[in-house]
């Protein structure tokens, strides 16, 4: 691998930004946001520069690495602080810094009224740095640092307004559930070290060939656990909805475009493990399938615009995971969908942000309506994103999502049919709830309270939205034109030649569009004809209720983990006090008691003392008697 | 070269100087104490620079006959392990003095007495790690209890005297068991070529496996009480709850390390066979401590008790690393001792400032400090992050080394222990949320943020936590030779990668 | 006559004396019981000296008498003081100090 | 029948003879010197005698003779060491005793009677305590060096009889004091009867009253073991009574509490040295070869004594009784040294006796300082907050307690360590284990007192700390210095002991 000296700056710049802003404190309030944005941007341009370098080299020459210093080295456990930039990571670098920068810009205005804006930007920079470390680290352990780093940043940003207790709780929930995932990652690392003696990507890749399937499967499953945590996949998905507590730009950047896709990165990055561990791979697919339906169903019932989008994010990442689970053919498409999704979902979140901004922080879509006239730009950008996520040609989603559906069908046998139909159905439901959001927000009659006066956001906010909208329109075509991305990534994944086609592409697209059409149609019938009431109707089917409660995920966690956990805790606390410490105190009391009892011997009567001596004497004689006999 | 004696003499001289000062001039007393500790720290660092990293033999060796009648020597010497721990102690000392500038005021006795005790204690802290004569070690090991006892009972809060007594009785009990073992060793050494307490000589004694097991227990129980290992831990929460933050830092940061240090230096060296015999049980206890300590930490209402229980969990990790018998586990454990000292110090000091400002140590009494005292809140948060071993902070490196090192030989233990990291997230984030987040609750509105002195005191601690997170190699390079030496002595090799083909 | 009998006698006297110390209340009587024990010991000495055929035992006996006399002096002094201040010679009354 | 005049080696006996002379002169002084000068004269006389005797002991430190007094007295290393220890302890004790405020002005007078009051007012203080002390000391000096049964018995009575009287001399709480005297006397006499009876059987067994003779028959194994065993048993009772071993301990708490505190200190320290000295000599030389018979019994008694002393001490509310029980526990530890029956055990025991004696005198000296209007305050509850009232006194007392508890850097620790290691070496592992455990229990109540003094707030009940008289202060300072010094750097003394401590037969 060629070595480069400039990789570290990709991370160093935003990290420095975070450090400066946090240490300088209030002093940097005036210029902090500008510095942060500038650093993020410069990191983006560095990324472009790296890309250009990469393009100038042949396929094999493209990956570059940089060893910074020896991080941990004990016995055979040697970890360098090393970075690696290859075709896969560059995609993420550009996505993170690109979208990141846009959202920096957006936030300048969005957060302008917040006294802590500087801190917000510090966290954003911190996040960028951590996320870059995640995708640039050249070993699982370096990745781990970035992995928990983004977790921390996400915790800080979700809880940015933690004076609201609910928000603080949400951030805690996110961190803890992520930690469960992280546990999986550390297991994976441990197993890798124990079995292969290395945890660097190159090392593990090399060792994977002659490592038992059992070990690889174990590693794979643990990696999957990690992925489910970070990417809000089933069964660790519950935190994402609450994570919307954070400021909207955060939701756009972290909980839509970048961090939540880290799981997809981890799985594609570890392709050499999953390819050799079919069981683990199958699990990946299953998790993806479940989550995409799960998210979609929740999405249908959400009245909070951000929660609705979050649900859809969950579902879309389900697509990616599923794609990644389909093996070599799927990885590229997973990444593609990841990128396009990065554009349109970020765009839509920013749109949502601008709506909320214009509606005095009202998030309930039932209290929107007819905003089309008041926020044309927002409507347009959001609309493009909408079309993209639906997968309407030629918008971005069309290319990426269809690829996944198609690959799912082609994955062969009954598995293929099931996966294919699931993805199709998912597409339909997606169409339904996105349309619902669209209609309730922008069309129909206005349902907002009279003191609300919607207005279009300033250019600092709509500019990023616009740019992302362009992305949502074009990115799909660009990435798939002449299989650009697939070929670009191909050196990383060994492909097993072409699959036999179960269905021709045209058919799949046809089916997909049909599903979408149905979904849209239902939504129209349900919401745009009849007027929608501003408060959510309570007389609804049990299914709706369940969907509103995120399919009972929280109830489940509470009943199965939280309550028993709390019980165990209180019991143990009492035990420690009563039994363990009690035993100790008991010994003390016993000693006291013995003393108090033996005191009785000292009756104060000289005759009893004499008797004592006499008894002693007799005892001695008796003993002697025994000895003599 | 008599570096070590010099190091021990300096604080003692300082304490005499303090004793000579007038009781009334508290400022001068404090300044003298601070100056002394700083000088000691400088001296230690100077000595550390002269330490040969790759030399596994004891260095800076000193040996003078003390009680020839029993073959007792005043013998000092350090290897990488001891050096790291002495560094830890002498760096912590000035931090504690500066951080606890005013905590000696509520005490039964004068400020002066407080600092005399602290300085005497520092001398003993250095000596206990440097001693290479078992008798000398024992003497300091026991004598150390007295200053701490008076520090807790004299300057603490709440049930301080009860806690102090509990601490003392507990430790004395362990110490006496150890004394019995030491006597046995001494007698055996007499039977095998001359009475001696020299560690090296004793480690080559011939003894039946039963004897070895019993003597091992004598030592181990003493250390397991010090390092509190479940179920011998119940003194720690009480002591930590009643002691002043500074005392708690020295207690958990340094004194309890004597336990884990002793396990390596004495249990493993003197009784290799017995160590192997008991490893399975000890590992179980360690794992229990990890989980148990974490769960109880979650259940605590009192901030100080909470921190104490987190430490019980951490000591579980250290013990596990020691008895995993792999170089990663060992180096990790040693590094863990160092890091734990500083993350706990940060927690206790900042927590102590919060408590002294609020006048209550009940977590529920705090609320929304983030908005009132941002700096203090951040410091507490950082300390917490380091305590839950966030990657990028020092404790992550050590904790992960321990886990990896354990996993390669005892996967099951490592797996259960790893669950501790989730619990860690809970026991840190719950108090963080209750105390720092949410709306500002009554009684917290006008708490003052950290002042300059406090900032200066905490800065080096945080710096160490962060820097060692990214660049632990300097320490590891010192620790590794010593650690792998011990492992080799016991005849262990790191497990080789299996490629899962088992 | 078999000298051993004198030993049995002395043993009996000694026992009587010992029991007397335990059962009698009057300090004087208790003291006399002790004297009895001493003399029992003396009897043994003399008997043994008879058995062993040397004089040491008898010498000891003389010493014992002297010592016993001293004891009487001290003892009576103490008992009398007690009696004067308590108006009672019962050893059971003197039980301020206990436990 | 021809009598050969006894040949006495006066140099070797001089220490004892000097004391006796001093004592007799003391009696005369008591009779003839005017009351104004009496105290001071007595004091100087006593101190002088003791110092002189000590100097004499120092002079003969390397002498070794079994014939100092026709074979009734043996002077050897251990003898010298024990006599020196007794004298040193005696001197500092006398410094404390010198504070005559502790003693009744007129022992003969009725408690609370006019003559007593008058005696106090006119300052007509009788000072018979000094000659009595000297007599007792001379007895103690003789006890461990005597080498035949007669001398042994006489010495025993010589040291006991004066102590019986001294126990009754307290100025305050005279009834209790007299009761102590009575109990001490009756039980003492009782036990010495056993002692004498045992002697008779030893004589019967060996046809000899000299230790050498008895030893020969024990070694030879000829003769009737029953006689020997009964003899050993009853003699042991006498000795165990003096050292206060369970179940022959019952007198000590009451006497310690009732006696005037300075006397208690003297008695606790010096008597132990004398008694254990004799015990060591007898068991190490005379009974050594019958170890099979007494070792198990003595071990049992040692174990019971340690545990009993430690446990009961926990439950005490009175500082003097607490110290009494602690001294019982220490008797148990010392028995471990006797059981060891090896050179190390001998050295250790002698060191322990000296260290413990010094600390004990110091501790009781401090007890004499804590008073209220009605005299000494020994109720522990009224010692609360002593550390606040007078930190130095409290700190010193804490020092002694830590020494008793055997905390390192005090003489107590070195003593415990050496005696336990000796016992362990001789194979008495069980005794050592119990010893260690009971020291853990013992630590419990020593620490409780420290807590009372330092960690609890003073109660305003007129309890105050007397400014110690110069002599008392000297005694206390000496004791604490020795206690610490022997903990930090015991090497010189240990070497001195080990070089000297060899029994000659």
Can you walk through the features of this model?
- The complex is a heterotetramer of chains A (629), B (502), C (99) and D (505).
- Chain B is 74% helix and 3% strand.
- Chain B has 502 residues and is mainly α.
- Chain B has a two-stranded antiparallel ribbon.
- In chain B, helix 1 runs antiparallel to helix 4 (111-130) and helix 11 (245-270) packs antiparallel against helix 12 (272-299).
- Chain B is globular.
- With 99 residues, chain C is an all-alpha fold.
- The longest helix of chain C is centred in the last third of the chain and has 31 residues, at 56-86.
- Chain D is mainly α and 505 residues long.
- Chain D has helices at residues 10-32, 35-59, 77-97, 114-121, 129-142, 149-167, 174-206, 211-220, 225-243, 251-258, 261-286, 291-314, 319-340, 343-367, 386-389, 391-405, 411-425, 429-455, 470-488, 491-500, and strands at 370-372, 375-376, 464-465.
- The longest helix of chain D has 33 residues, at 174-206.
- Chains in contact: A-B, A-C, A-D, B-D, C-D.
- The interface between A and B is large, with 60 and 67 residues.
What descriptors fit this protein?
heterotetramer; C: 99 residues; mainly alpha; 78% helix; D: 505 residues; 3-stranded antiparallel β-sheet; 3 strands; 73% helix; globular
């Amino acid at each position: 691998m060629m070595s480069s000296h400039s990789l570290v700056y990709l991370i160093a710049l935003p990290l420095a930004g975070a450090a400066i802003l946090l240490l300088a404190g209030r002093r940097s309030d005036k210029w902090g946001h500008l510095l942060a944005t500038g650093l993020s941007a410069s990191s983006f341009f560095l990324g472009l520069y790296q890309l250009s370098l990469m393009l100038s080299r042949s396929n094999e020459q493209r990956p570059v690495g940089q060893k910074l210093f020896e991080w941990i080295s004990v016995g055979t456990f040697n970890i360098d602080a090393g970075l690696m930039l290859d075709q896969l990571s560059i995609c993420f670098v550009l996505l993170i810094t690109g979208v990141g920068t846009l959202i920096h810009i957006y936030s300048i205005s969005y957060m302008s009224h917040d006294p802590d804006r500087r801190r917000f930007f510090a966290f954003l920079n911190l996040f960028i740095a951590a996320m870059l470390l995640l995708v640039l680290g050249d070993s699982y352990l370096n990745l781990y640092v970035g992995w928990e780093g983004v977790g921390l940043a996400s915790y800080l940003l979700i809880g940015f307004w933690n004076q609201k207790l609910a928000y603080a709780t949400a951030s805690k929930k996110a961190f803890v559930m992520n930690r469960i995932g992280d546990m999986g990652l550390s297991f994976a690392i441990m197993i890798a070290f124990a079995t292969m003696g290395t945890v660097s990507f190159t090392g593990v890749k090399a060792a994977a060939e002659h490592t038992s399937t059992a070990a690889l499967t174990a590693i794979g499953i643990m990696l999957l656990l990690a992925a489910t945590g970070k990417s809000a996949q089933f069964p660790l998905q519950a935190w994402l909805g609450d994570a919307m507590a954070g400021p909207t730009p955060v939701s756009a950047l972290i909980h839509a475009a970048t961090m939540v896709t880290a799981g997809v990165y981890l799985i594609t990055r570890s392709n050499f493990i999953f390819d050799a561990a079919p069981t683990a791979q199958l699990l990946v697919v299953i998790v993806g399938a479940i989550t995409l339906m799960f998210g979609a169903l929740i999405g249908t019932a959400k009245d909070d615009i951000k929660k609705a989008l979050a649900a859809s994010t969950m579902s879309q990442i389900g697509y990616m995971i599923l794609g990644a689970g389909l093996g070599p053919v799927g990885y590229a498409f997973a990444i593609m969908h990841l990128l396009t999704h990065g554009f349109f979902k970020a765009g839509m979140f920013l749109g949502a942000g601008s709506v909320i901004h214009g509606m005095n922080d009202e998030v309930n879509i039932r209290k929107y309506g007819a905003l089309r006239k008041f926020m044309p730009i927002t409507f347009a950008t959001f609309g493009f994103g909408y079309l993209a996520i639906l997968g309407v040609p030629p918008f971005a989603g069309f290319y990426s999502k269809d690829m996944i559906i198609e690959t799912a069908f082609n994955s062969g046998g009954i598995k293929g049919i099931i996966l294919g139909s699931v993805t199709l159905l998912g597409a339909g439901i997606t169409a339904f709830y996105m349309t619902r959001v669209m209609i309730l927000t922008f069309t129909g009659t206005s349902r907002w309270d009279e003191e609300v006066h919607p207005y279009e956001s300033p250019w600092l906010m709509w500019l990023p939205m616009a740019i992302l909208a362009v992305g949502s329109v074009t990115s799909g075509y660009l990435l798939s034109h002449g299989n650009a991305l697939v070929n670009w990534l191909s050196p990383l994944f060994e492909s097993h030649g072409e699959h036999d086609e179960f269905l021709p592409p045209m058919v799949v697209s046809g089916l997909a569009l049909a599903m979408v059409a149905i979904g849209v149609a239902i939504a129209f019938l349900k919401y745009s004809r009849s007027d929608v009431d501003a408060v959510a109707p309570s007389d609804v089917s049990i299914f709706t209720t369940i969907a509103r409660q995120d399919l009972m995920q929280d109830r489940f966690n509470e009943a199965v983990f939280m309550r028993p956990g709390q019980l165990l805790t209180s019991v143990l606390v009492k035990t420690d006090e009563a039994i363990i410490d009690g035993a100790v105190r008991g010994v003390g009391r016993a000693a006291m008691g013995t003393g108090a009892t033996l005191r009785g011997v000292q009756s104060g009567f000289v005759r009893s003392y004499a008797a004592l001596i006499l008894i002693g004497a007799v005892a001695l004689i008796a003993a002697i008697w025994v000895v003599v006999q | 070269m008599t570096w070590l004696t010099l190091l021990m003499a300096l604080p003692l001289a300082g304490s005499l100087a303090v004793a000579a000062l007038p009781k009334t001039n508290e400022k001068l007393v404090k300044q003298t104490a601070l100056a002394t500790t700083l000088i000691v720290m400088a001296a230690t660092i100077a000595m550390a620079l002269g330490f040969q990293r790759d030399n596994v033999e004891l260095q800076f060796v000193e040996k003078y006959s003390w009680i020839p009648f029993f073959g007792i020597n005043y013998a000092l010497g350090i290897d990488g392990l001891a050096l790291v721990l002495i560094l830890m102690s002498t760096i912590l000392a000035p931090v504690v003095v500066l951080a606890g500038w005013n905590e000696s005021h509520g005490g039964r006795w004068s400020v002066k007495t407080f600092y005399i005790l602290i300085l005497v204690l520092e001398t003993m802290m250095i000596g206990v790690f440097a001693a290479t004569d078992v008798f000398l070690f024992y003497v300091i090991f026991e004598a150390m209890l007295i200053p701490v006892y008076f520090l807790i009972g004299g300057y603490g809060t709440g049930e301080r005297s009860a806690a102090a007594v509990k601490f003392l009785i507990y430790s004395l009990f362990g110490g006496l068991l150890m004394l019995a073992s030491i006597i046995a060793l001494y007698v055996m050494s007499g039977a095998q070529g001359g009475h001696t307490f020299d560690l090296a000589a004793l480690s080559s004694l011939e003894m039946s496996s039963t004897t070895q097991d019993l003597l091992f227990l004598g030592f181990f129980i003493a250390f397991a009480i010090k390092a509190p290992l479940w179920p011998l831990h119940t003194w720690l929460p009480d002591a930590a709850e009643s002691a002043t933050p500074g005392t708690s830092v020295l207690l958990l940061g340094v004194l309890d390390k004597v336990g884990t240090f002793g396990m390596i230096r004495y249990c493993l060296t003197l009784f290799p066979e017995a160590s192997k015999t008991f490893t399975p049980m000890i590992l179980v206890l360690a794992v229990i401590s990890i989980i148990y300590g974490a769960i109880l930490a979650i259940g605590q209402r009192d901030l100080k008790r909470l921190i104490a229980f987190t430490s019980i969990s951490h000591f579980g990790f250290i013990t596990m690393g020691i008895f995993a018998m792999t170089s990663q586990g060992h180096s990790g454990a040693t590094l863990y001792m160092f890091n734990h000292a500083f993350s706990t110090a940060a927690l206790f000091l900042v927590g102590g400032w919060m408590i002294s400002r609020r006048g209550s140590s009940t977590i529920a009494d705090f609320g929304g400090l983030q908005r009132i005292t941002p700096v203090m809140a951040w410091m507490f948060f950082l300390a917490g992050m380091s305590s839950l071993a966030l990657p990028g902070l020092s404790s992550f490196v050590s904790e992960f080394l321990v886990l990896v090192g354990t996993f390669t030989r005892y996967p099951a233990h490592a797996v259960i222990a790893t669950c501790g990291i989730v619990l860690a997230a809970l026991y840190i984030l719950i108090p963080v949320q209750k105390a720092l987040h949410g709306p500002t609750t009554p009684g917290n509105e006008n708490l003052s943020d950290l002042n300059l002195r406090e900032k200066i005191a905490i800065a080096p601690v945080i710096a160490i936590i962060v820097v060692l997170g990214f660049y632990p190699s300097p320490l590891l390079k010192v620790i590794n030779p010593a650690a792998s030496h011990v492992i080799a002595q016991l005849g262990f090799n790191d497990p080789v990668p299996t490629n899962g083909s088992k | 006559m078999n000298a051993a009998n004198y030993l049995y006698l002395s043993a009996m006297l000694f026992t009587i004396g010992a029991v007397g110390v335990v059962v009698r209340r009057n300090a004087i009587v208790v003291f006399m019981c002790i004297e009895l024990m001493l003399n029992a010991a003396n009897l043994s000495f003399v008997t043994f000296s008879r058995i062993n055929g040397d004089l040491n035992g008898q010498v000891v006996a003389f010493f014992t008498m002297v010592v016993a006399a001293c004891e009487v002096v001290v003892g009576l002094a103490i008992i009398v003081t007690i009696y004067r201040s308590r108006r009672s010679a019962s050893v059971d009354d003197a039980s301020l100090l206990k436990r | 029948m021809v009598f050969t005049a006894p040949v006495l080696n006066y140099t070797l006996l001089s220490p004892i003879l000097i004391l006796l002379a001093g004592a007799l002169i003391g009696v005369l002084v008591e009779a003839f010197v005017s009351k104004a000068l009496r105290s001071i004269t007595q004091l100087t006389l006593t101190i002088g005698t003791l110092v002189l005797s000590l100097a004499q002991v120092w002079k003969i430190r390397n002498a070794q003779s079994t014939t100092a007094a026709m074979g009734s007295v043996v002077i050897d290393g251990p003898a010298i060491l024990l006599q020196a220890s007794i004298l040193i302890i005696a001197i500092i004790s006398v410094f404390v005793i010198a504070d005559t405020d502790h003693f009744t002005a007129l022992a003969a007078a009725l408690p609370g009677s006019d003559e007593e009051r008058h005696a106090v007012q006119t300052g007509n203080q009788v000072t018979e305590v000094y000659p009595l002390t000297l007599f007792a000391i001379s007895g103690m000096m003789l006890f461990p060096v005597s080498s035949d049964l007669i001398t042994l018995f006489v010495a025993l009575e010589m040291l006991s009889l004066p102590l019986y009287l001294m126990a009754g001399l307290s100025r305050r709480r005279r009834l209790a004091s007299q009761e102590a005297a009575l109990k001490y006397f009756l039980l003492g006499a009782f036990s010495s009867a056993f002692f004498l009876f045992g002697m008779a059987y030893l004589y019967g067994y060996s046809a000899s009253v000299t230790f050498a003779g008895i030893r020969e028959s024990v070694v030879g194994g000829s003769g009737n073991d029953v006689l020997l065993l009964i003899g050993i048993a009853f003699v042991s009772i006498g000795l165990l009574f003096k050292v206060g071993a369970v179940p022959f301990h019952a007198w000590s708490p009451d006497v310690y509490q009732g006696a005037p505190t300075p006397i208690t200190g003297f008695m606790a320290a010096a008597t132990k040295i004398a008694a254990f000295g004799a015990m060591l000599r007898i068991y190490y030389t005379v009974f050594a070869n019958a170890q099979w018979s007494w070792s198990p019994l003595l071990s049992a008694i040692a174990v019971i004594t340690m545990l009993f002393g430690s446990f009961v001490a926990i439950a005490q509310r009175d500082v003097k009784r607490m110290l009494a029980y602690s001294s019982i526990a220490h008797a148990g530890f010392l028995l471990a040294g006797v059981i060891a029956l090896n050179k190390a055990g001998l050295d250790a025991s002698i060191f322990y006796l000296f260290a413990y004696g010094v600390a004990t005198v110091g501790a009781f000296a401090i007890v004499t300082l804590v008073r209220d209007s009605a005299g000494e305050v020994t109720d522990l509850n009224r010692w609360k907050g002593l550390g606040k009232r007078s930190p130095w006194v409290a700190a010193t007392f804490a020092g002694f307690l830590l020494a008793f508890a055997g905390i390192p850097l005090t003489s107590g620790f070195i003593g415990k360590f050496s005696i336990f290691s000796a016992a362990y070496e001789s194979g008495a592992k069980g005794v050592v284990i119990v010893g260690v455990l009971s020291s853990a229990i013992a630590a419990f109540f020593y620490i409780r007192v420290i807590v009372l003094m330092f960690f609890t707030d003073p109660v305003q009940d007129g309890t105050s700390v007397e400014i110690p008289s110069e002599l008392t202060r000297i005694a206390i300072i000496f004791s604490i210095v020795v206690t610490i010094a022997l903990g930090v750097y015991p090497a010189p003394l240990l070497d001195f002991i080990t070089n000297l401590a060899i029994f000659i037969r």
